[in-house]
């Protein structure tokens, strides 16, 4: 192993891992803390749904559905919930409210960092990219010039299809899901928002997104748009330019 490391280090073309700056590490810590809280809130929401299912009370998925339905469930005296069960569900929901407050605190700190960052301000001119995604891009990927091509950035994050050879033909599979799953998830979430509003727009990206969603479905389109967004980010960062809408 030691010999292989020495040999690799002596090769001038060997790719290297860029060390994060202190500012990037600080931002990444904030982002990871927020992400952990969001995951914990999701677990708690699913726990409450499971508790209610035991009593034959079913509600849809998602935090917003829970917030909308739970007050009327707790006030319904005829739904089978006894005093103890009702109080336990209420305690679980109170815990979620506490998590909400912590998430808001971390999000405010991330947004504060984004307001003071010229890079983050530039990134937010692109569609589907808000302050949290912008700061995650900066903290996770750093200097985009480390990637020789836009495709290299997409490959690094795992938003390009895997390729297989079969019978002399190249077959495209699902995305590789390499790299940081949190950033990939944020980009796909942003891509979904791009697709949602694309039908009301007439720029090149929106028309392409609508066409792809109609042909391949929203899930495939969301990954493809996320890939496109990352390539746009690469161009913006390497050229130090804001996003420019292409009408043609």
Automatic annotation (TrEMBL):
A GO term, aspect molecular function: transposase activity
GO biological process: DNA transposition
Residues covered by the Transposase IS116/IS110/IS902 C-terminal domain: 120-198
Keywords: Coiled coil
InterPro entries: Transpos_IS110 (IPR047650), Transposase_20 (IPR003346)
Coiled coil region boundaries: 96-126
Name under which the protein is recorded: IS110 family transposase
The species this protein was found in: Pseudidiomarina aquimaris
């Amino acid at each position: 192993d030691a010999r292989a490391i020495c040999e690799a280090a002596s090769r001038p073309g060997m790719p290297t891992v860029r060390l994060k700056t202190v500012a990037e590490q600080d931002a990444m810590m904030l982002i990871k803390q927020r992400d952990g809280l969001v995951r914990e809130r999701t677990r708690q929401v699913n726990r409450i749904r499971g508790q209610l299912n035991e009593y034959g009370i079913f509600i849809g998925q998602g935090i917003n559905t829970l917030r909308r339905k739970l007050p009327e469930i707790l006030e319904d005296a005829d739904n089978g919930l006894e005093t103890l069960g009702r109080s336990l569900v209420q305690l679980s929901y109170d815990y979620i409210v506490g998590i909400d407050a912590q998430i808001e605190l971390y999000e405010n700190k991330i947004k504060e960092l984004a307001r003071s960052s010229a890079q983050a301000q530039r990134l937010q001119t692109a569609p589907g990219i808000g302050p949290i995604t912008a700061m995650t891009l900066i903290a996770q990927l750093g200097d985009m010039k480390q990637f020789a091509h836009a495709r290299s950035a997409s490959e690094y994050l795992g938003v390009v299809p895997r390729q297989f050879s079969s019978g002399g033909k190249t077959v495209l599979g699902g995305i590789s899901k390499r790299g940081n799953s949190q950033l990939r998830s944020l980009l796909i979430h942003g891509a979904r928002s791009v697709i949602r509003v694309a039908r009301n727009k007439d720029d090149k990206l929106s028309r392409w997104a609508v066409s792809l969603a109609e042909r391949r479905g929203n899930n495939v389109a969301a990954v493809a748009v996320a890939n496109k967004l990352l390539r746009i980010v690469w161009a913006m960062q390497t050229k130090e330019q804001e996003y420019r809408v292409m009408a043609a």
